[in-house]
Amino acid sequence: MLVGFLCALGAGLLWGLVFVTPLILAEYPGLVLSFGRYAGFGLIALVPAYLDRRRIATLTKADWIAAFKLSMVGNILYYAALATAIQLADAPLPTMLIGTLPVVISFCSNWAPGHPSEAIAWKRLLPSLLIIFIGIMLVNVSELAHLDGRRSPREYAAGCVIALGAVAAWTWYPIMNARHLKQHPHIRSSTWATAQGLTTLPLALLGFVAYGLYVHLSGSGYAFPLGPSPGLFIGLMLTLGLCASWMGTLLWNQASQRLPTSLAGQLIVFETLSALLYAFLWRGTVPALPVLAGIVLLCAGVILGVRIFRAA
What are the tens digits of pLDDT across the range 66-76? Predict the structure, then answer.
Protein backbone atom coordinates (compact mmCIF):
# COMPACT_ATOMS: atom_id res chain seq x y z
CA MET A 1 0.00 0.00 0.00
CA LEU A 2 2.86 2.41 0.78
CA VAL A 3 4.45 1.81 -2.64
CA GLY A 4 1.06 2.29 -4.31
CA PHE A 5 0.53 5.51 -2.35
CA LEU A 6 3.92 6.90 -3.39
CA CYS A 7 3.33 5.92 -7.03
CA ALA A 8 -0.01 7.77 -7.00
CA LEU A 9 1.75 10.78 -5.48
CA GLY A 10 4.38 10.73 -8.23
CA ALA A 11 1.74 10.42 -10.94
CA GLY A 12 -0.16 13.38 -9.48
CA LEU A 13 2.96 15.56 -9.43
CA LEU A 14 3.59 14.80 -13.09
CA TRP A 15 -0.05 15.17 -14.19
CA GLY A 16 -0.28 18.60 -12.61
CA LEU A 17 1.90 19.87 -15.47
CA VAL A 18 -0.96 19.48 -17.97
CA PHE A 19 -3.00 22.21 -16.26
CA VAL A 20 -0.48 24.99 -16.81
CA THR A 21 0.48 24.04 -20.37
CA PRO A 22 -2.74 25.47 -21.95
CA LEU A 23 -2.00 28.74 -20.15
CA ILE A 24 1.60 28.85 -21.38
CA LEU A 25 0.49 27.98 -24.94
CA ALA A 26 -2.70 30.04 -24.87
CA GLU A 27 -2.63 30.66 -28.64
CA TYR A 28 -2.78 26.94 -29.45
CA PRO A 29 -6.17 25.20 -29.85
CA GLY A 30 -6.97 22.49 -27.30
CA LEU A 31 -7.06 19.79 -29.98
CA VAL A 32 -3.56 20.71 -31.16
CA LEU A 33 -2.26 20.49 -27.57
CA SER A 34 -3.89 17.09 -27.14
CA PHE A 35 -2.58 15.69 -30.42
CA GLY A 36 0.85 17.20 -29.81
CA ARG A 37 1.14 15.81 -26.29
CA TYR A 38 0.17 12.30 -27.31
CA ALA A 39 2.25 12.34 -30.47
CA GLY A 40 5.15 13.09 -28.11
CA PHE A 41 3.96 10.24 -25.84
CA GLY A 42 3.86 7.81 -28.74
CA LEU A 43 7.25 8.81 -30.14
CA ILE A 44 8.88 8.52 -26.72
CA ALA A 45 7.18 5.11 -26.18
CA LEU A 46 9.05 3.75 -29.21
CA VAL A 47 12.25 3.65 -27.16
CA PRO A 48 10.96 1.55 -24.22
CA ALA A 49 8.98 -0.53 -26.74
CA TYR A 50 12.21 -1.57 -28.40
CA LEU A 51 13.94 -2.24 -25.08
CA ASP A 52 10.90 -4.17 -23.78
CA ARG A 53 10.06 -5.84 -27.10
CA ARG A 54 9.89 -9.37 -25.67
CA ARG A 55 7.15 -8.46 -23.20
CA ILE A 56 5.39 -6.28 -25.76
CA ALA A 57 5.25 -9.31 -28.09
CA THR A 58 3.40 -11.33 -25.43
CA LEU A 59 0.42 -8.94 -25.39
CA THR A 60 -2.69 -10.49 -26.93
CA LYS A 61 -5.15 -9.01 -29.40
CA ALA A 62 -7.55 -8.36 -26.50
CA ASP A 63 -4.79 -6.46 -24.68
CA TRP A 64 -4.16 -4.23 -27.70
CA ILE A 65 -7.89 -3.55 -28.14
CA ALA A 66 -8.13 -2.58 -24.45
CA ALA A 67 -5.05 -0.35 -24.77
CA PHE A 68 -6.56 1.33 -27.85
CA LYS A 69 -9.84 2.09 -26.03
CA LEU A 70 -8.01 3.42 -22.98
CA SER A 71 -5.79 5.59 -25.17
CA MET A 72 -8.72 7.02 -27.12
CA VAL A 73 -10.85 7.88 -24.08
CA GLY A 74 -8.32 8.51 -21.32
CA ASN A 75 -5.71 10.24 -23.45
CA ILE A 76 -6.97 11.90 -26.63
CA LEU A 77 -10.56 12.74 -25.66
CA TYR A 78 -9.79 13.64 -22.05
CA TYR A 79 -6.97 16.08 -22.68
CA ALA A 80 -8.58 17.62 -25.75
CA ALA A 81 -11.67 18.32 -23.63
CA LEU A 82 -9.63 19.61 -20.69
CA ALA A 83 -7.43 21.95 -22.75
CA THR A 84 -10.43 23.25 -24.73
CA ALA A 85 -12.43 23.86 -21.54
CA ILE A 86 -9.54 25.79 -19.95
CA GLN A 87 -9.17 28.00 -23.00
CA LEU A 88 -12.92 28.62 -23.28
CA ALA A 89 -13.68 29.27 -19.62
CA ASP A 90 -10.24 30.11 -18.14
CA ALA A 91 -8.44 27.69 -15.82
CA PRO A 92 -10.29 27.99 -12.45
CA LEU A 93 -13.77 26.87 -13.56
CA PRO A 94 -12.80 23.71 -15.49
CA THR A 95 -10.23 22.92 -12.78
CA MET A 96 -12.99 23.00 -10.17
CA LEU A 97 -15.05 20.49 -12.17
CA ILE A 98 -12.04 18.28 -12.91
CA GLY A 99 -11.19 18.50 -9.21
CA THR A 100 -14.26 16.43 -8.36
CA LEU A 101 -12.64 13.38 -10.04
CA PRO A 102 -11.31 11.85 -6.78
CA VAL A 103 -14.83 11.74 -5.35
CA VAL A 104 -16.53 10.69 -8.61
CA ILE A 105 -14.03 7.90 -9.37
CA SER A 106 -14.07 6.57 -5.82
CA PHE A 107 -17.88 6.60 -5.72
CA CYS A 108 -18.27 4.89 -9.11
CA SER A 109 -15.62 2.24 -8.46
CA ASN A 110 -17.16 1.37 -5.09
CA TRP A 111 -20.65 1.32 -6.60
CA ALA A 112 -19.58 -1.10 -9.37
CA PRO A 113 -16.31 -2.70 -8.20
CA GLY A 114 -14.33 -4.89 -10.53
CA HIS A 115 -14.09 -7.51 -7.78
CA PRO A 116 -16.26 -7.92 -4.64
CA SER A 117 -13.14 -7.77 -2.45
CA GLU A 118 -12.57 -4.13 -3.52
CA ALA A 119 -15.94 -2.89 -2.25
CA ILE A 120 -16.11 -1.19 1.13
CA ALA A 121 -19.10 -0.23 3.27
CA TRP A 122 -20.47 3.17 2.31
CA LYS A 123 -20.58 4.33 5.94
CA ARG A 124 -16.81 3.83 6.08
CA LEU A 125 -16.06 5.36 2.67
CA LEU A 126 -18.30 8.44 2.71
CA PRO A 127 -16.57 10.41 5.54
CA SER A 128 -13.27 10.63 3.65
CA LEU A 129 -15.09 11.47 0.39
CA LEU A 130 -17.05 14.23 2.14
CA ILE A 131 -13.89 15.77 3.60
CA ILE A 132 -12.17 15.64 0.19
CA PHE A 133 -15.21 17.19 -1.51
CA ILE A 134 -15.34 20.08 0.98
CA GLY A 135 -11.61 20.62 0.50
CA ILE A 136 -12.04 20.69 -3.29
CA MET A 137 -14.83 23.23 -3.02
CA LEU A 138 -12.83 25.48 -0.68
CA VAL A 139 -9.83 25.39 -2.98
CA ASN A 140 -11.72 26.00 -6.18
CA VAL A 141 -14.30 28.52 -4.99
CA SER A 142 -11.38 30.70 -3.93
CA GLU A 143 -9.72 30.10 -7.30
CA LEU A 144 -12.86 31.39 -9.09
CA ALA A 145 -11.77 34.86 -8.00
CA HIS A 146 -9.00 34.57 -10.59
CA LEU A 147 -11.44 34.37 -13.51
CA ASP A 148 -10.32 37.03 -15.96
CA GLY A 149 -13.89 38.05 -16.92
CA ARG A 150 -12.97 38.32 -20.59
CA ARG A 151 -15.18 35.41 -21.63
CA SER A 152 -18.86 35.58 -22.48
CA PRO A 153 -21.48 33.59 -20.50
CA ARG A 154 -21.80 31.32 -23.53
CA GLU A 155 -18.06 30.55 -23.45
CA TYR A 156 -18.18 29.79 -19.73
CA ALA A 157 -21.16 27.48 -20.24
CA ALA A 158 -19.50 25.69 -23.16
CA GLY A 159 -16.31 25.30 -21.15
CA CYS A 160 -18.23 23.74 -18.25
CA VAL A 161 -20.04 21.26 -20.52
CA ILE A 162 -16.77 20.22 -22.17
CA ALA A 163 -15.10 19.92 -18.75
CA LEU A 164 -17.89 17.56 -17.63
CA GLY A 165 -17.10 15.45 -20.70
CA ALA A 166 -13.48 15.32 -19.51
CA VAL A 167 -14.70 14.20 -16.07
CA ALA A 168 -16.71 11.38 -17.66
CA ALA A 169 -13.72 10.28 -19.78
CA TRP A 170 -11.33 10.18 -16.87
CA THR A 171 -13.80 8.47 -14.58
CA TRP A 172 -14.05 5.62 -17.07
CA TYR A 173 -10.31 5.41 -17.74
CA PRO A 174 -8.83 4.61 -14.28
CA ILE A 175 -11.61 2.14 -13.44
CA MET A 176 -11.23 0.16 -16.67
CA ASN A 177 -7.42 0.46 -16.61
CA ALA A 178 -7.26 -0.93 -13.07
CA ARG A 179 -9.62 -3.79 -13.95
CA HIS A 180 -7.51 -4.85 -16.91
CA LEU A 181 -4.28 -4.76 -14.91
CA LYS A 182 -5.75 -6.74 -12.02
CA GLN A 183 -7.26 -9.31 -14.38
CA HIS A 184 -3.86 -9.66 -16.11
CA PRO A 185 -1.28 -9.42 -13.29
CA HIS A 186 1.46 -10.77 -15.57
CA ILE A 187 1.50 -7.46 -17.49
CA ARG A 188 4.12 -5.12 -16.05
CA SER A 189 3.09 -1.52 -15.43
CA SER A 190 5.89 -0.22 -17.70
CA THR A 191 4.85 -2.58 -20.50
CA TRP A 192 1.23 -1.43 -20.23
CA ALA A 193 2.26 2.24 -20.24
CA THR A 194 4.32 1.62 -23.37
CA ALA A 195 1.45 -0.25 -25.05
CA GLN A 196 -0.85 2.70 -24.44
CA GLY A 197 1.77 5.03 -25.89
CA LEU A 198 2.05 2.90 -29.03
CA THR A 199 -1.72 2.83 -29.55
CA THR A 200 -1.92 6.57 -28.89
CA LEU A 201 0.64 7.48 -31.56
CA PRO A 202 -1.43 6.69 -34.71
CA LEU A 203 -4.51 8.30 -33.13
CA ALA A 204 -2.56 11.48 -32.36
CA LEU A 205 -0.94 11.64 -35.80
CA LEU A 206 -4.25 11.06 -37.61
CA GLY A 207 -5.91 13.71 -35.47
CA PHE A 208 -3.08 16.14 -36.16
CA VAL A 209 -3.38 15.61 -39.93
CA ALA A 210 -7.18 15.92 -39.78
CA TYR A 211 -6.86 19.21 -37.90
CA GLY A 212 -4.42 20.44 -40.54
CA LEU A 213 -6.98 19.71 -43.25
CA TYR A 214 -9.60 21.58 -41.23
CA VAL A 215 -7.31 24.62 -40.92
CA HIS A 216 -6.62 24.54 -44.66
CA LEU A 217 -10.26 24.22 -45.69
CA SER A 218 -11.66 26.69 -43.17
CA GLY A 219 -9.06 29.36 -43.79
CA SER A 220 -8.21 29.56 -40.10
CA GLY A 221 -5.44 31.92 -39.13
CA TYR A 222 -3.66 29.26 -37.05
CA ALA A 223 -0.07 28.64 -38.23
CA PHE A 224 -0.32 24.88 -38.72
CA PRO A 225 1.50 22.62 -37.84
CA LEU A 226 3.77 24.07 -35.11
CA GLY A 227 1.94 27.31 -34.37
CA PRO A 228 3.36 30.69 -33.43
CA SER A 229 6.02 29.36 -30.99
CA PRO A 230 7.44 26.19 -32.59
CA GLY A 231 10.37 25.68 -30.22
CA LEU A 232 8.31 26.13 -27.06
CA PHE A 233 5.51 23.94 -28.47
CA ILE A 234 7.84 21.05 -29.35
CA GLY A 235 9.68 21.27 -26.03
CA LEU A 236 6.51 21.26 -23.94
CA MET A 237 4.89 18.46 -25.96
CA LEU A 238 7.94 16.22 -25.51
CA THR A 239 8.07 17.12 -21.82
CA LEU A 240 4.42 16.22 -21.35
CA GLY A 241 4.85 13.09 -23.47
CA LEU A 242 7.71 11.84 -21.30
CA CYS A 243 6.74 13.08 -17.84
CA ALA A 244 2.97 13.44 -17.71
CA SER A 245 2.16 10.63 -20.15
CA TRP A 246 4.70 7.80 -20.09
CA MET A 247 6.09 8.21 -16.57
CA GLY A 248 2.73 9.32 -15.16
CA THR A 249 0.97 6.32 -16.72
CA LEU A 250 3.68 3.94 -15.49
CA LEU A 251 3.36 5.21 -11.91
CA TRP A 252 -0.43 5.18 -12.07
CA ASN A 253 -0.38 1.59 -13.34
CA GLN A 254 1.74 0.63 -10.34
CA ALA A 255 -0.74 2.32 -8.02
CA SER A 256 -3.70 0.68 -9.79
CA GLN A 257 -2.17 -2.78 -9.33
CA ARG A 258 -1.42 -2.27 -5.64
CA LEU A 259 -4.44 -0.31 -4.36
CA PRO A 260 -8.23 -0.74 -4.38
CA THR A 261 -9.66 1.41 -7.16
CA SER A 262 -11.82 3.40 -4.71
CA LEU A 263 -8.70 4.41 -2.78
CA ALA A 264 -6.65 5.08 -5.91
CA GLY A 265 -9.47 7.36 -7.09
CA GLN A 266 -9.16 9.44 -3.93
CA LEU A 267 -5.42 9.80 -4.46
CA ILE A 268 -6.02 11.75 -7.66
CA VAL A 269 -6.23 14.73 -5.29
CA PHE A 270 -2.45 14.82 -5.71
CA GLU A 271 -3.04 15.97 -9.29
CA THR A 272 -5.27 18.79 -8.01
CA LEU A 273 -2.71 19.82 -5.39
CA SER A 274 0.10 19.74 -7.95
CA ALA A 275 -1.90 21.81 -10.41
CA LEU A 276 -2.49 24.39 -7.66
CA LEU A 277 1.20 24.45 -6.77
CA TYR A 278 2.26 25.01 -10.37
CA ALA A 279 -0.47 27.64 -10.91
CA PHE A 280 0.70 29.64 -7.88
CA LEU A 281 4.31 29.38 -9.05
CA TRP A 282 3.25 30.53 -12.53
CA ARG A 283 1.37 33.53 -11.09
CA GLY A 284 4.00 34.26 -8.45
CA THR A 285 1.36 34.47 -5.72
CA VAL A 286 0.72 32.92 -2.29
CA PRO A 287 -2.40 30.78 -1.59
CA ALA A 288 -5.24 32.54 0.22
CA LEU A 289 -6.46 31.26 3.59
CA PRO A 290 -9.48 29.35 2.15
CA VAL A 291 -7.16 27.60 -0.32
CA LEU A 292 -4.82 26.58 2.51
CA ALA A 293 -7.80 25.31 4.50
CA GLY A 294 -8.97 23.33 1.48
CA ILE A 295 -5.50 21.83 1.02
CA VAL A 296 -5.47 20.74 4.67
CA LEU A 297 -8.87 19.08 4.25
CA LEU A 298 -7.73 17.31 1.05
CA CYS A 299 -4.74 15.89 2.87
CA ALA A 300 -6.88 14.92 5.88
CA GLY A 301 -9.41 13.17 3.64
CA VAL A 302 -6.66 11.18 1.91
CA ILE A 303 -5.11 10.15 5.24
CA LEU A 304 -8.50 9.04 6.53
CA GLY A 305 -9.18 7.11 3.32
CA VAL A 306 -5.83 5.31 3.52
CA ARG A 307 -6.47 4.32 7.14
CA ILE A 308 -9.94 3.02 6.34
CA PHE A 309 -8.73 0.87 3.46
CA ARG A 310 -5.70 -0.35 5.39
CA ALA A 311 -7.98 -1.46 8.22
CA ALA A 312 -10.33 -3.14 5.76
Answer: 999 999 998 88
